[in-house]
Amino acid sequence: MGVNWVRAGSVYILLLGLILGAFLGSCNGGVSSRYARGNDISADMPLDSDVFALPVGYNAPQQVHITQGDHEGRGVIVSWVTPEEPGSNEVVYWAENSETKYSSLGTVVTYKYYNYSSPYIHHCTITNLEFDTKYFYEIGTGDVTRQFWFTTPPAVGPDVPYTFGLIGDLGQTFDSNRTLAHYESNPKGQAVLFVGDLSYADAYPLHDNNRWDSWARFVERSVAYQPWIWSAGNHEIDFLPEYGEGEPFKPYTHRYYVPYEASGSTSPLWYSIKRASAYIIVMSSYSAYGMYTPQYKWLISELPKVNRTETPWLIVVMHCPLYSTYTHHYMEGETMRVMFEKYFVQYKVDVVFSGHVHAYERTERISNIAYNIENGLCTPKYDGSAPVYITIGDGGNQEGLLYEMVDPQPLYSAFREPSYGHATFEIKNRTHAYYAWHRNQDGYAVEADSLWFHNLYWNSTQISSTASM
Ligand SMILES: [Fe+2]
């Protein structure tokens, strides 16, 4: 009898162990990649590096960059800097295979930041371009002119294929250069959604704004040829009141113009554009967004305007992630999540791209919107109407990668890995888009994480994903 009890007890303990093991196993989320990476230090490139080289000639235009210049994609804002004198504000442009040249006249601005005086910053908006057309453009005067080109997007429509690149927290280190080169080697990206933290000039004493200049020279090789859609991060704030610099975002807003007025916004820090089959909403993590604030009022009136029959893909870009399972910056996006997550679910936002956390992560489709302060219902759970949240703050700035993660991996985290890289979001039609994340150590064709998106408005079936380690 006693022996039987011992045997029964052993079986009981074994079963209990199996059940407990299965339960603990179910608490783990997706993949925490164990990819082994080099432990290289993210030093800024020296100012005499070739990537920062000045163009040849007196007062030669430099730091050339373009972004979308209207709401529909028929406009382009061309921005550049002249160092010695204002020079010309004119952009001359012409369509490929056309003899007809047009010109548009912009404006020039300068600013001071403590003991730094900016060069002459030109902004010129070109409008009424033909869709889906390659244009050449020329800036400068006299003997020193520089020529570039861009291709306008196809007309807005529900089944228009279009591919966005995704880059964040880039900085100007050797790793930043690898990320940009890696993105350039990927032939898919037609425009970049930049998730904030551009130059990291604020890492230098007195926020040395010369590093804003060097950064713009570094990225010119891409952003002069395809639009980067800007969002502002914490490194754009440049708030230094003890030195008389109390105006947040001063260098950023003087250097990077965006078409905010075209979407009824009152600030360049939050705005929207349509591009091909996508509706992009850019938000500001570091501007007021509480009830009744300008950003809140704009967003609440903006979301109902999105016509998913015209632009099926609804994408939100903001610097600080609402969901991240890295311990650094943990829960910094929580107040914004409380304010806006319910609207993202209500309006079926397909994906939210963020940066800030210097690593990569993708979540499942989850929401956490049932809580009402007293019902205790506060936990992320699967929600077929919720966005996927993707953190791509892995551009390669001088702060380095973040390795410490919440352990075990929460269920809502599908894939996470601290490696530098970029991603592409490849819209095929109104129902399908293919997303891929590429780490810098691999060839551009290698996808370290990928996912087929099924549009939330047109197809509410579950997403499928694959991940390679
Ligand atoms: Fe950041």
Automatic annotation (TrEMBL):
<dbReference type="InterPro" id="IPR039331">
    <property type="entry name" value="PAPs-like"/>
</dbReference>
<keyword id="KW-0732">Signal</keyword>
<dbReference type="InterPro" id="IPR015914">
    <property type="entry name" value="PAPs_N"/>
</dbReference>
<protein>
    <recommendedName>
        <fullName>Purple acid phosphatase</fullName>
        <ecNumber>3.1.3.2</ecNumber>
    </recommendedName>
</protein>
<keyword id="KW-0378">Hydrolase</keyword>
<keyword id="KW-0325">Glycoprotein</keyword>
<dbReference type="Pfam" id="PF16656">
    <property type="entry name" value="Pur_ac_phosph_N"/>
</dbReference>
<feature type="signal peptide">
    <location>
        <begin position="1"/>
        <end position="29"/>
    </location>
</feature>
<dbReference type="GO" id="GO:0046872">
    <property type="term" value="F:metal ion binding"/>
</dbReference>
<dbReference type="InterPro" id="IPR029052">
    <property type="entry name" value="Metallo-depent_PP-like"/>
</dbReference>
<dbReference type="InterPro" id="IPR008963">
    <property type="entry name" value="Purple_acid_Pase-like_N"/>
</dbReference>
<dbReference type="InterPro" id="IPR025733">
    <property type="entry name" value="PAPs_C"/>
</dbReference>
<dbReference type="InterPro" id="IPR041792">
    <property type="entry name" value="MPP_PAP"/>
</dbReference>
<dbReference type="Pfam" id="PF14008">
    <property type="entry name" value="Metallophos_C"/>
</dbReference>
<dbReference type="GO" id="GO:0003993">
    <property type="term" value="F:acid phosphatase activity"/>
</dbReference>
<dbReference type="Pfam" id="PF00149">
    <property type="entry name" value="Metallophos"/>
</dbReference>
<dbReference type="InterPro" id="IPR003961">
    <property type="entry name" value="FN3_dom"/>
</dbReference>
<keyword id="KW-0862">Zinc</keyword>
<keyword id="KW-0408">Iron</keyword>
<feature type="domain" description="Fibronectin type-III">
    <location>
        <begin position="60"/>
        <end position="155"/>
    </location>
</feature>
<dbReference type="InterPro" id="IPR004843">
    <property type="entry name" value="Calcineurin-like_PHP"/>
</dbReference>
<comment type="similarity">
    <text>Belongs to the metallophosphoesterase superfamily. Purple acid phosphatase family.</text>
</comment>
<keyword id="KW-0479">Metal-binding</keyword>
